[in-house]
C-alpha cells in the first residue's frame, strides 16, 4: 500500500534521526526528538509541497520518542505504513499499526513512540484550507473550529479513500504539467472532502439534517465504489436504491449535477488513471481498460484525453 510514493522527493537517505528531525521541525511540525536506544544511521525522509499541502514520508529507523507541544494552525493526517506508532495524549493512549490513520487537530499536545521499523506518511493541512472547504461544504463553521475525533481508521477498508490518497501523493511526486492547469488544487480539495467524510468531527453540529434522499444517493455511490470494475447499469443502481430509474436520474441531477452514467464513466476514468500511473502490474492500456469493463477503446481514449489532457498510452509510458 503506497510503498513507492514520494520516491522522487527524497531529502534524507540513511542518515541520523537528528538530521531528519531538523528537517521535520522546519517543514512538518515543531517537536522534540529523544532516542530510545543505540543510534543507527538509517533514517529517511521524503518531502514535497503540493497545492498548500505539505506531504512527507518519515522513517527514523530507530526507536524514538517525539514530543509535540502543539500543531499551531495546522492539521495532520498521519498514516502508519510499517511498524507501529503509539500516540500518548494527556487523557488516553492508542497504538496504530500498518494501514491505520488518525487526524490530529491544531493545539493538541502529544507524545509519539516510534518502533524502529515505523514508517509514516503525513499530510500537513493549513487550518485555512480545512475551514474554506467546510464553509463550502456546510455553509458555516462550528464556533470552536473543526475538531476531529480521536478515532483510528483503517484506510484499507475504503477503496475510494485509498485511491484519493494515492492520486494526491503520486501527483505530488511528479512535476506534472497538469498541475499548472489547476488539477493540483482539485486533488487537494478532493482529499480534504474525503477526510471530512471519513473522520468524524464536530462539522455535523452545523450540518443540516440528513434527508432520505441523501442516504439513498450515498448508498448508490458506495455501491458504485465497491463494484467500479463491473459493467454497472442504471437499472442495477435503481434496484440498489429501491427507487425508479427516473427518480435516480433526478437524485443525481439535484445532488451531484450529473447523470448516473456520467458519474460511473468519470469514476472509471479516475480509477484507470490511477492504475496506469501507479500499478506496475499493468502492461498495456487495453489490459487496464478491460479490467474496468471498458469495451469501446477508441471512445475511452478520447474521453481519457479530454479529462486528463493526454492519451492513456502517454500516462502509461510516463510511469
Compact overview of the structure:
The chain is α+β, with helices and mostly antiparallel strands and 319 residues long. The protein is 42% helix and 22% strand.
Set down the secondary structure blueprint:
Layout: E1 10-15, H1 17-27, E2 32-35, E3 43-50, E4 53-59, E5 64-68, E6 74-82, E7 84-88, E8 93-97, E9 100-104, E10 110-114, E11 119-126, H2 127-138, E12 153-154, H3 159-173, H4 183-198, H5 212-226, H6 234-241, H7 245-256, H8 260-278, H9 285-291, H10 297-308, H11 312-318
Antiparallel strand pairs: 1-3, 2-5, 3-4, 4-11, 5-10, 6-9, 6-11, 7-8, 7-10, 9-12
Helix pairs in contact: 2-4, 3-4, 3-8, 5-6
What would you note in describing this structure?
This protein folds into two domains: 7-205, Jelly Rolls, CATH 2.60.120.10; 212-318, Arc Repressor Mutant, subunit A. The chain contains eleven helices and twelve strands. It has helices at 17-27, 127-138, 159-173, 183-198, 212-226, 234-241, 245-256, 260-278, 285-291, 297-308, 312-318, and strands at residues 10-15, 32-35, 43-50, 53-59, 64-68, 74-82, 84-88, 93-97, 100-104, 110-114, 119-126, 153-154. Strands 1-3-4-11-6-9-12 form a seven-stranded antiparallel beta sheet, sandwiched between helices. A five-stranded antiparallel beta sheet has the order 2-5-10-7-8, covered by helices on one side. A hairpin with a 2-residue loop joins strand 3 and strand 4.
Adjacency order of strands in the biggest sheet? 1-3-4-11-6-9-12
Average pLDDT number: 86
Computed CA radius of gyration, to the nearest angstrom: 21 Å
Strand content: 15-25%
CATH class wording of the largest domain: Mainly Beta
**CATH-level-2 architecture of the largest domain:** Sandwich
InterPro entries: AraC-bd_2, AraC_XylS_family_regulators, Homeodomain-like_sf, HTH-like, HTH_AraC
Keywords: DNA-binding, Transcription, Transcription regulation
Protein name: Helix-turn-helix domain-containing protein
Domain HTH araC/xylS-type: 218-318
